[in-house]
Amino acid sequence: MISRHVRIMRPMVIAAAVVSCLAVSQKLVAQNPATAPNVTYTASGIFGTTPLSGPDLYKMAGEPFTINVVANAATHPTKNGATWAQYTKLKLTGQVNSGLLPGEPYPITSNSTSMELATGNPSYDVFTIFAPVSVIGSQVNISSLIQMPPGTIKNALIHPFTAPVTLNPAVATVTYVAGGVTTTLSIASGTLNATIPTGAAQPHAAAQLYAEGVQTITSHGDGTATLRPLHGAPVDLSAQADVVALVFYGTGMRDASDVRLQIAGQDVPVMYAGASSHYPGLDEVNVQVPRSLAGSGAAEVVLIVDGQMSKPVQIQIQ
Q: What is 144-183 written as a DSSP string?
């Protein structure tokens, strides 16, 4: 069993392993849409009474609004980096009030909404949307930028928030383009939240190892270390003075209390098991390969998480 405080104590050389995995990151991040829950992002509030820029053609300043964007937690980002992800073709529904139609909430909808979640800035997390909608019979492009306290977004994947975010008019804005004219309004008050609908429990990720992206870290007797992707090559245990570690990616480890890994049926020392610091949504396990496994040849690797065993992956040990 590994305790949570041990799980965060990774050697720096192992943390560096993720840098060389960029080519496989998209392939490794995978969930099942049939079992992953939908997450609903809901923003509601009141627009500022004075436009920040441009003429308010639809007279929405000072009026209330509500929008909902629904996305499945297994949705793959269209584009992403280490700390941000963009999603497209999401559905938005909601309503806005306009001074052109006093007292009548106007429904809006879009099936081509884009959403971006970013966590890279140490001062704030960012939520943005872009949606082409119809307002009072005219096609209008609406975009919104909301800065939130750091840590609101746990990672850049589709994910619920731990609590509603109070919108700050200094950093929460909506811009709409109508007839070639651009108008920007502040959001004077309101909240943004991301929730899983009642009754749709977040499934626990199954214990799983990926054959792709395995890394070998060799610490040499002279104090130097080398890092390379395994790419199906044999794990080299020939040098007596070398200490060899392997980094595997998978799912199901971050919330576990007991994580074990077996190579050729033998439990090996687990140095870290938990969330990958470089790839949001991925877990990783770093293990030392004992010299007793030298010459094993084809060997099965199995992850065991709280008693649940993953399907094996194959490696070669020389």
A: EEEEE-TTSSSSSSS---SSPEEPPTTTEEEEEEETTEEE
Question: Which two three-digit tokens encode residue 290?
Answer: 């004992």
Q: Residue 240: CB partners within 8 Å, gap ≥ 6?
A: 291
Environment class of 160 (CB within 10 Å of its CB; exposed 0-12, middle 13-18, buried 19+): middle
pLDDT above 90 for 35:
no
Tokens of 129: 């949307």
Cα dihedral 126→281→109→114 (10° resolution):
60
Residue with tokens 């731990």: 162
H helix and E strand count, the chain: 3, 21
77 vs 142: CA distance, rounded Å = 21
- The tokens for 46 are 């009141």
237: left (phi over 0), alpha (psi -120 to 50) or beta: alpha
Distance CA 152, CA 261 (A): 33
Are 283 and 254 spatial neighbours (Cβ–Cβ below 8 Å)? yes
- Condensed to tens digits (0 to 9), the pLDDT of residues 213-240 reads 898 989 888 888 888 889 889 999 988 8
